[in-house]
TrEMBL record:
Protein name: 2Fe-2S ferredoxin-type domain-containing protein
Provenance organism: Riccia fluitans
Entry keyword annotation includes Iron: yes
InterPro entries the UniProt entry points to: 2Fe-2S_ferredoxin-like_sf, 2Fe-2S_ferredoxin-type, Beta-grasp_dom_sf
GO molecular function, one term: 2 iron, 2 sulfur cluster binding
Length: 90
């Protein structure tokens, strides 16, 4: 997990890029439609108001999601495909 300082209103995708936590060579749309920027926010999807789906998961589309007011740090959990899907699946 990486903890990074940020400003309220700063774009969460830009915060992740600053930490080096993004999909390499991805061409993000910055409109919330390509879904390449989906990230999990622990307990925070409702707080930021940009939930990516209605299943109850804390997934957000970070390209259109600002850091909420009052937040000065964000914890970014770095996951690899092996962590998510299991070693050798993809």
């Amino acid at each position: 997990m990486i903890t990074v300082e940020c400003r309220a209103g700063e774009n969460l995708l830009r915060v992740a890029e600053r930490c080096g936590v993004t999909v390499p060579n991805a061409e993000f749309c910055f409109e919330g439609s390509c879904c390449l920027c989906e990230m999990e926010v622990q307990g925070g999807a409702v707080e930021v108001g940009y939930r990516a789906d209605t299943s109850g998961a804390d997934l957000i589309r970070s390209c259109i999601c600002p850091v909420p007011k009052g937040r000065k740090i964000v914890d970014v959990n770095v996951l690899s495909e092996d962590n998510v899907w299991g070693e050798g699946v993809l």
